[in-house]
Structure formats: C-alpha cells, structure tokens
Amino acid sequence: MDINNLISQYGYAALIVGSVAEGETVTLLGGVAAHQGLLRFWLVVASVALGGMIGDQVLYLLGRRFGGRLLKRFSRHQKKIRKAQRLIQERPWLFVIGSRFMYGFRIIGPILIGASRLSPKIFLPLNIVGAIVWALLFTTLGYLGGEVIGPWLHHLDQHLKHWAWLIVVVMAVVAVRVWFWHRDRKSAESEE
Predict the structure, then answer these.
(1) What whole-number distance in Å separates Cα of residue 55 and Cα of residue 60?
(2) How many other β-carbons are positioned within 10 Å of the β-carbon of residue 46?
(3) 136 vs 69 pLDDT, higher one
(4) Measured between alpha carbons, how far is residue 144 from residues 29, 32, 138 in Å?
(5) What pLDDT digit, counting tens, does each position of 107-128 carry?
C-alpha cells in the first residue's frame, strides 16, 4: 500500500469529506499534497472550498430549523447570543465570512447564523466567498509548509515503521515495570 497512490487516487474526495467535517487540518494537508505534486493546487482549493461550503450550508439550515430551540438551552449565554444575532443582522458579511476563521465557531457559527433568521439569499453568496477565501488561505499555508514537511513525507513509510517499533518498545518497558511492581507488591504482602 503506497500512501502517495492513495492520495493521488482518493485525495480530492477525501478533501471534500474532510473539510465538511473538520477543516483546517485537512486543508493544510491538501496544500502539502499539492506541494508534493500529488494533487493540483487549484483542485485542492476547489475541493476544500466545496466541502467547507457544504458543511456550513448544512449547519446553517439546521440552525434555521432547530436553532431557536437549541439556543434556548444555553440560558446563561442568552445575552451573548442576542449580541451575536444583532451583529449578524447588522454586518452579515463580517460574521458569515469571519466565523470561518474564529477558532471554536466553525460549528456553532453557521447554526447561530441560521437561528438568527438571516436570509438564505444573503447567507449563500457570503458562504461561498468565505469558503473560497478560507480554502485559498489554508491551502496556501499548507503548500508553503510543504517545503518543511515535504522531505519528511517522502520517507513516511520509514517513519511509520520507526514509530511502530518505538511504541512496541515503550509498551514492553511499561509491561515489565508493571510486572515488577505486581511481583514486589505480592512479595511485600506475603511477608506481612
């Protein structure tokens, strides 16, 4: 099993699915793969933008449908929620595009936007723009990071073997220490 062939064969589909679910890490890795020549840069950007847009669109729709009931459960945070919803209505472009870049807002942001009843005609174009900007930025960072990570990736199979052996050795040392500890404890109990 060659990891490079797997990336070349399934990379774009994996990027779409991965960016729906997670985002930044997948996008950075896509940029690294593009740097290595395994994937094409612009197709990586398009794939992660599509996945990110789909993910946020689904969360937005869930927010429109269930957001009101969901947000009522956070009674301690109602003041902050109302403030965020006012900001969404006053500056939707700032919140829709910006929430993509705010750590911890990747999931709750689109739900909050949907719950604020922002029009789909406003959300969809902003979601597309935000997804493209986000994908371009993080893919570029991954691509540039490929300079550093690239040489290490060429020997990934060898690194995995070394890590596997290291894990086996550590587990053996721990097992021997536990065995000695139990043995010493039993001998101490029998002497009493």
Answers:
(1) 9
(2) 17
(3) 136
(4) 11, 8, 10
(5) 788 888 888 888 999 999 999 9
- CA–CA separation, 99 and 38 (whole Å): 31
Measured CA to CA, the distance from residue 43 to residue 16 in angstroms comes to 11
d(CA 101, CA 117): 21
**CA–CA distances in Å: residue 117 to residues 19, 65, 132, 138:** 25, 10, 23, 29
Name residue 95's amino acid: F
Higher-confidence residue of 25 and 161: namely 25
DSSP state of 22: T
Q: How many CA atoms lie within 13 A of 42 on its CB side?
A: 0
Among candidates 63, 43, 48, which has minimal Cα distance to 16?
48
Task: Determine contact, residues 123/53, Cβ cutoff 8 Å.
Answer: no
Question: How far apart (Å, rounded) are the C-alpha atoms in residues 94 and 130?
Answer: 10
Where b means 16+ CB within 10 Å and e means fewer, 134-166 reads: bbbbbbbebbeebeebeeebeeeeeeeeeeeee
Question: How confident is the model over 56-68, as pLDDT tens digits?
Answer: 999 999 988 988 7
End-to-end Cα separation, the chain, in angstroms = 57
Are the beta carbons of 79 and 109 closer than 8 angstroms?
A: no
